């Protein structure tokens, strides 16, 4: 009987799910077996038994390649014809014509001019493996490498040790290999291949590693790849996973204050299911938590398309869609929402700050950190950055390339785009090009060969998921801003030396707040660190947000950051040893209005002021209304701002990327 078959009959001993079992009953439909180790009986369907059954002894492998299909697939047309002709001769021998087999073997051997023993081997191989057994094994077996395996191991060890070092030459790497072999096994113990063979073998072992060629950055990235099959984070509907990441742009931007080039960063939020960009922000020098908060707000609440965009521009709003498919009997308010359920972020402090975590928790958004230095955890957003560079930024003036080796001469002299202009260009390119272009990674399982764009994939996701609803509130954006607690004086509120006032405070001046705990007697005020010209106050009577204006805010027509205000005080102290807040502020405002920047740090903050609009949309203008003080109000005799407590909850909200 053929060794590749197992006979299923009563008393047969086979392997099933790793255990030796004996067949005790078999009726053609089901099989009852007894486990030899435990004595337990099991009754299985025949299909289940066949799926997990194997012989107790593995059949002897007769083919060099181990598979009939692999053996025949490795033949050329001429070799296939030769094997077919040889199989025809074997079948002539096997056809019984009344004569003994040995006579037929002698006749066929004489006909072909071969030894009888050769024809006998053909017949035995044909009976065992069919035509695949007649293939000359020398044809399908490679010669392999004759280099000592210990030499190969040493090459791999040296390449692994030099991942973070500068790229060596091949001769230097081979010299290190020889030294390692002498250290491990002794001088001259391991035979070295010839110079030509060593170079050829090194090329084979170093293929795909950048060990002796290519960039060192690429070599480190290759070394950090997962060793094995890549996993995949699979989204089933829009909004299930939103991936956030920040990267330096490959284009210099213009600085309005000094008219010099500046490095810009792009923060994007990418929907994993549709590959649509649902939020972005271009910032100068570095990204702050408030910038990430602005991107998150845009991904939840959307952003209106400018009137200047072409009519065919597509920026799908992953909140309330234009077209819905749902049952008429389904209540309109009971559908799933499209607020991001899970955010995949880096381990950067700007992403994992208490500010971002607190707001995401309030919105019911889970945060899933990616592994450090593992671009493969966020391949979709990494690929978007490459698409942006190849599709847009490389065509812009002042393109500096992905690395220093690709940079031209004096490219910063070509910069003419301001930061907000660059953001507008990127947004329009995404709407008119990226969202409408076919994407190889967007596949519908039911129709795998259908090419889809991100905008089309959004329509598919809406059809699959059903309703999409966003639980948006008018003051949702302000939840992304840090909170400070202050008392309300007759002149308003004072935050970090800046006084804010507005009609919304009428009725609450010199009054204690109804809040308890750390806020006992004080009022929460929200301030945008990137633009301290305004603060926001929430009226406890109607829970509406109202804007408060800084007393010197009208002097500025551009956002003014908290960092800039603090730097103004440092300049004043360094100048004359005294400190006059009003004088320091006025001097700094005049210098910036004149375009004068004194040092690198001041220039850095001036860049932060160059954005034409803040990271978050402003609240509606306050509506004045008469209010009465709360019944529990207690009037204070003096300003106690100096003793106000700060809970430190947002201390890391302003950390920047390194």
UniProtKB/TrEMBL annotation:
Transmembrane segments: none annotated. One of its GO terms (molecular function) is nucleic acid binding. This is Helix-turn-helix domain-containing protein. Residues 234-462 form the Integrase catalytic domain. It comes from Micromonospora inyonensis. InterPro entries: Integrase_cat-core, RNaseH-like_sf, RNaseH_sf, Transposase-like_Mu_C. PANTHER family: TRANSPOSASE, TRANSPOSASE RV3428C-RELATED. GO terms for biological process: DNA integration.
């Amino acid at each position: 009987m053929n060794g590749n078959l197992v006979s299923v009959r009563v008393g047969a001993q086979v392997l099933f799910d790793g255990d030796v079992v004996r067949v005790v009953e078999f009726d053609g439909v089901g099989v009852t077996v007894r486990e030899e180790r435990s004595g337990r009986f099991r009754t299985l369907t025949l299909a289940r038994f066949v799926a997990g059954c194997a012989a107790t002894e593995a059949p002897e492998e007769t083919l060099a390649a181990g598979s009939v299909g692999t053996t025949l697939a490795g033949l050329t047309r001429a070799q296939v014809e030769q094997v077919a002709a040889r199989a025809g001769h074997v079948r002539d021998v096997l056809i019984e014509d009344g004569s003994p087999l040995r006579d037929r073997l002698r006749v066929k051997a004489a006909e072909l001019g071969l030894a009888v023993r050769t024809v006998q081997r053909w017949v035995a191989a044909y009976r065992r493996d069919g035509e695949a057994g007649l293939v000359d094994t020398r044809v399908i077996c490679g010669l392999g490498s004759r280099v000592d395996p210990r030499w190969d191991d040493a090459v791999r060890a040296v390449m692994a040790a030099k991942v973070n070092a500068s790229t060596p030459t091949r001769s230097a790497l081979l010299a290190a290999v020889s030294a390692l072999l002498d250290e491990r096994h002794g001088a001259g113990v391991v035979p070295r291949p010839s110079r030509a063979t060593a170079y050829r073998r090194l090329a084979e072992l170093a293929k795909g590693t950048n060990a002796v060629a290519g960039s060192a950055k690429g070599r480190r990235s290759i070394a950090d790849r997962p060793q094995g099959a890549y996993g995949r984070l699979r989204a089933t509907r829009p909004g299930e996973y939103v991936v956030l990441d920040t990267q330096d742009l490959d284009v210099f931007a213009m600085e309005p204050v000094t008219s010099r080039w500046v490095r810009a960063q792009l923060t994007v939020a990418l929907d994993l299911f549709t590959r649509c960009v649902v939020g972005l922000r271009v910032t100068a020098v570095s990204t702050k938590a408030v910038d990430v908060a602005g991107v998150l707000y845009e991904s939840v609440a959307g952003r209106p398309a400018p009137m200047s965009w072409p009519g065919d521009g597509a920026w799908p709003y992953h909140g309330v869609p234009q077209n819905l498919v749902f049952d008429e009997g389904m209540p309109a308010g009971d559908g799933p929402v499209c607020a991001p359920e899970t955010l995949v972020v880096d381990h950067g402090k700007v992403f994992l700050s208490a500010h971002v975590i607190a707001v995401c928790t309030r919105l019911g958004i889970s945060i899933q950190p990616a592994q450090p230095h593992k671009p493969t955890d966020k391949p979709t957003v990494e690929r978007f950055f490459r698409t942006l560079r190849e599709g847009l930024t490389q065509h812009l003036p002042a393109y500096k390339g992905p690395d220093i080796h690709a940079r031209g001469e004096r490219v910063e002299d070509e910069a003419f785009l301001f930061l907000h202009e660059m953001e507008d260009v990127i947004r329009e390119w995404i709407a008119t090009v990226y969202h409408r272009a076919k994407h190889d990674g967007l596949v519908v399982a039911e129709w795998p060969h259908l090419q889809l764009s991100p905008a089309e994939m959004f329509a598919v996701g809406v059809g699959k998921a059903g309703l999409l609803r966003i639980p948006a509130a008018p003051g949702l954006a302000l939840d992304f801003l840090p909170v400070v607690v202050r008392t309300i004086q007759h002149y308003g509120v004072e935050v970090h030396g800046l006084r804010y006032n507005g009609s919304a405070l009428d009725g609450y001046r010199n009054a204690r707040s109804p809040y308890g705990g750390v806020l006992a007697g004080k009022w929460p005020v929200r301030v945008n660190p990137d633009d301290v010209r305004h603060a926001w106050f929430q009226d406890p009577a109607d829970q509406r947000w109202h804007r408060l204006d800084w007393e010197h805010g009208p002097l500025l027509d551009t956002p003014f950051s908290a960092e800039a205000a603090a730097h103004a005080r440092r300049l004043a102290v360094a100048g004359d040893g005294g400190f006059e807040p009003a004088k320091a502020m006025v001097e700094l405002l005049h210098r910036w209005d004149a375009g004068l920047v004194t040092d690198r740090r001041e220039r850095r903050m001036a860049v932060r002021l160059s954005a034409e609009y803040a990271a978050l949309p402003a609240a509606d203008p306050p509506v004045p209304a008469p209010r009465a003080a709360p019944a529990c109000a207690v009037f204070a005799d003096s300003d106690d701002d100096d003793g106000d407590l700060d809970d430190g909850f947002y201390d890391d909200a302003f950390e920047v990327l390194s």
